[in-house]
Amino acid sequence: MFKINIKSFISIISAKITLFLAKHLFKGGSNFPGRVALKIDKDVLKPLSNGYKVVLVTGTNGKTTTTSMIYNILKSQGLDVITNNTGANMLPGIVACFADNYKFFYEKERFAVIEVDEANVKFITKHITPNIITITNLFRDQLDRYGEVYTTLEKIMEGVVNVPESKLILNGDESLLGKLNVPNEIIYYGFNESLNTSKTADLNADAKFCKVCKAPYKYNFITYNHLGDFYCDNCGYRRETLKYMVNSILEVTPDSSKVLINNSEINLSQSGIYNVYNALCAYSITHELGVGTKSIVSSLENQSASFGRQEVINIDDKEIKIFLVKNPAGYNQALDTICFSKENLSLAFFLNDNYADGRDISWLWDVNFEHLNNLNVDDISIGGIRLYDMAIRLKISGLNYDEFKLCDNYDKMTDAIKSSKNKKVYVLATYTAMINYRKYLHTKGYIKNLW
């Protein structure tokens, strides 16, 4: 047991009481208990996290899925592991997670796998020195909050400089993550093969220019957006040496992927190149934590989808697969994954512009909806706060707008899904739309566990 002062003790007890009430009376409230604790003791995260080996997962896309993968791998080893699986990834939510799992007496070694919002890393590392910090990637996201990718990187690095002892495990295919001027030990992971035959970044790709000399990058290959085996033939800056790598992409379908990571063949139950990146990151981190390769592979092959991340939900006789989409890079990857399908499709779209989604939805015009014209799409249902903006974007992309079903509430959307011509329906939803529609489905009995 670690000694704590009376203020921290009161803070923790208050958070636990608030958590109990939030869970049993209000069926939620993953941030508010942390706010209560911080109001009493602004430094309570330090005593709450004492005794944990901590892994922080940050970056634009893939945080929740990667966190879940790491957590499940460690849990499969019989280890005592906690995580903020509700996605509450800002300081109050992380405090609430530690408070919920706080024990005044314990003996076992404990791990915490924590997803962290990019702008909140500096608040967490003020109180915690993680064993490992990983940065998954950097894409334009929530433009009104982060601006361009360089701003996002600066926000993350404000937190990294607080903890020079932490090991950094980084996506080597992300050009912004090379040549970091920090004393930390750095390990890189990435791809040695790509399904993408282009060696030229798309017009709307993000970090296309050398971080050293600003000349345009060239690529041996691109995986997607600006990720890949990059190099600058003007100044010589290039991708760092990889320790963990995808050496072969054996198969990708709308529902699964088969890849070779280092020398291990892995069948992933989640599809898409972005989920291969997530699995590669989890593989790298847990290997560095001492987990055996066979155990890592076994766990990755038995992962279930995190809520809203290719999660499958049954609505009567329809099987809906929900894709969380929040920026051009992630949206294009979701569309590319759907495009692997050879069958007729039914699609549903939700577009919200709440704070957590980003108020600025101009990014929608950088998404390649035109690719859907190559598919056999039978139904298109559209909902969310900005459903008319979504409808206009899909109309401009060339889809048949006479077939659009505009649904201004969840009942109408659910009825539209039920009347779809196909058994499988792909739902693409921004963050708050995904969260709120899941809550609606929970009240209707279609989802048993909300979180």
UniProtKB/TrEMBL annotation:
A biological-process GO annotation: peptidoglycan biosynthetic process
Reactions catalysed according to its record: beta-D-GlcNAc-(1->4)-Mur2Ac(oyl-L-Ala-gamma-D-O-P-Glu-L-Lys-D-Ala-D-Ala)-di-trans,octa-cis-undecaprenyl diphosphate + NH4(+) = beta-D-GlcNAc-(1->4)-Mur2Ac(oyl-L-Ala-D-isoglutaminyl-L-Lys-D-Ala-D-Ala)-di-trans,octa-cis-undecaprenyl diphosphate + phosphate + H(+); beta-D-GlcNAc-(1->4)-Mur2Ac(oyl-L-Ala-gamma-D-Glu-L-Lys-D-Ala-D-Ala)-di-trans,octa-cis-undecaprenyl diphosphate + L-glutamine + ATP + H2O = beta-D-GlcNAc-(1->4)-Mur2Ac(oyl-L-Ala-D-isoglutaminyl-L-Lys-D-Ala-D-Ala)-di-trans,octa-cis-undecaprenyl diphosphate + L-glutamate + ADP + phosphate + H(+); beta-D-GlcNAc-(1->4)-Mur2Ac(oyl-L-Ala-gamma-D-Glu-L-Lys-D-Ala-D-Ala)-di-trans,octa-cis-undecaprenyl diphosphate + ATP = beta-D-GlcNAc-(1->4)-Mur2Ac(oyl-L-Ala-gamma-D-O-P-Glu-L-Lys-D-Ala-D-Ala)-di-trans,octa-cis-undecaprenyl diphosphate + ADP
Annotated Zn(2+) binding sites: C210, C213, C232, C235
EC number(s) given by UniProt: 6.3.5.13
Gene Ontology molecular function: any one: carbon-nitrogen ligase activity on lipid II
Alphabetical UniProt keywords: ATP-binding, Cell shape, Cell wall biogenesis/degradation, Ligase, Metal-binding, Nucleotide-binding, Peptidoglycan synthesis, Zinc
Domain Mur ligase central stretches: 57-234
Gene3D superfamilies: Mur-like, catalytic domain
InterPro entries linked: Folylpolyglutamate_synth_CS, Lipid_II_synth_MurT, Mur-like_cat_sf, Mur_ligase_cen, MurT_C
Function: The lipid II isoglutaminyl synthase complex catalyzes the formation of alpha-D-isoglutamine in the cell wall lipid II stem peptide. The MurT subunit catalyzes the ATP-dependent amidation of D-glutamate residue of lipid II, converting it to an isoglutamine residue.
Family: Belongs to the MurCDEF family. MurT subfamily.
Protein name: Lipid II isoglutaminyl synthase (glutamine-hydrolyzing) subunit MurT
Source species of the chain: Clostridium frigidicarnis
